[in-house]
Amino acid sequence: MNDDTPLNIIKEMTGVLNAFYLDDAIIKQLVDEEATVRGSTDIGVANEGFSEALIREKIICIVKDTRFRPPPEPTVILRGNDGAVLGEEVFPWTKHLYEGRDDIIWMGDAFVVFPQVTVKGGEKFIMPPVSFPEVNEGNGCTNVISCSPAPTSDVLIKKYYGLEDNPKLATILVAFDKK
Fold it and tell me: What is the pTM of this model?
């Protein structure tokens, strides 16, 4: 595999302004930062996608704008410590699944909570690993996942690489092993 194949594929995607491999120094800073992240209501946050990215051989960082395609699965889930799903992100194309229901509570226009679900031992916001179909076995990659770093990690990445800290631009990490 040409080592730049996944990077070149990503750089050609609509909405990608920049893409590069993360180096070890920033990865260490991100590990420290992600360990401190809390939700806005002081609910814990577990960035499981980031944890999964750390065990892959390569991590590409994408700096994207609003033209970038939406994620294929929810990027935020409210889950009980017992595994029960208490809430999840809603996309425009999945909104119809929740409209008119009286067994949910809308938290903004892109997240629903399931109040009838009970949990034991508290809850956390989970940022799960998300598939990234453009990078795959056909182009020499296995165990491919993507994830969103926490907002504070997004700022760290931009600062470390001398990039503009524009709130309209977001980072995504794509991690994989070479085939």
Answer: 0.89
